[in-house]
Amino acid sequence: MTSTDNTDAKPPKGNFWFKIPLWKRIIGALILGAIVGSIWGEGAANIKWIGDIFIRLIRMIVVPLVFVTLVSGIVAMGDPKKLGSIGLKTMSLYLGTTAIAIIIGLGLATLFQPGVGIDMMGATAETLAPVMPLSERLMNIVPKNPVAALANGDILAVIFFAIIFGCGIMLAGDKGKAIANVMDSATEVMLKIIHMIMEVAPFGVFALIAATTGAKGVSALADVIPLALTLTLGFVLQMIVTHGGIIKFMLKLPATRFFKDIIDAQLIAFSTSSSSATMPVTMAVAEQNLGIKTPVASSVIPLGATINMDGTGMYVGVVAIFAAQSFGIELSIVDYGLIALTTTLVSIGTAAVPSASLFLLAAVLGVIGVSGEQTALVVGFLLPFDRPLDMMRTVVNVTGDLAVATAVAKSEDEFDEKIFRADPKV
Known about the structure:
The chain is mainly α. It has one domain (16-421): Sodium:dicarboxylate symporter (Proton glutamate symport protein), CATH 1.10.3860.10. Helices cover 72% and strands 0% of the residues. It has 20 helices and no strands.
């Protein structure tokens, strides 16, 4: 069964719409949206509000879902030591896969040289906000007011408070069981809400793709074809070689089964360009399609949506080389190392929203001698074409979240291989 069709209630007999697997409905909506947008042009913006409502619906559920499922999952572990083991493995894998993505991106950009001969002087410079220091970003993980963190949707702070709260319930023993039961019930309620919201997905995806295609046109990447092709190849390699390699060689599981099972999450990631907005679907896919049990799914997936940025890291690294080539800056081995290190650090905690990674460039480009004015020019050149690139890198980010979650779950014996191997899920 697909991640969003797995409900207790069976669809009515004879209902053609509900008999179609959700991922097929979404693919149909993507194709139809692209066709309508190409024909309708800028007028397709008139239906974008349908897609905006869909995004608001799934963002509405993100914070309460993360909080209650993470608390419930921690309590289910029964031992704070297990949380430490899961956390260490998760962070190591996330940082490792991001580093590999950046190395792949730097290698491809050096090989194909997408920035050579590109003139960005006609672009309109964009005003860039100051880059938040890493120390401040880490400090903000600890919320001054957990209620405010919940209200503002500060995911890292919510995760931190949920971990503390879950450990508190665990340590309270019998006296904390009442709260634990409430969290378990709330988790089930949240998952049912996700099922309801995802029935709207095909309509939301149709509107978003139609509006994007209508505004940009199918040839939106024409001015950045070399960069787009380099990135596309890099994204595909990262998913097949790195993520597929984790499943196939590290876990000894069928990689094709993994990619078939996660298609719902990938399609939502592609249409929304937001790891955060995709999170409810990612968590549902992890548990219901991949067999990842709640203690791991509820902790690894929310953390991944915030700190695991394989696609973002590769994108920023490739664009850094692209900018250097365009401006005629010669790079040494040390420069490549600085780009890789800086990109890995700034990608941690990147806002999981569309085009956020573009504005990380100031920190990365600064280490290789690109001026602030030149950086603003790079952002201005790429911004009109960034949406389709952002859609692709979000798919990579979400795929990485699920690959790491599967690895952690299997190593912690929180994995149901029968669910993973079940075929077909209809």
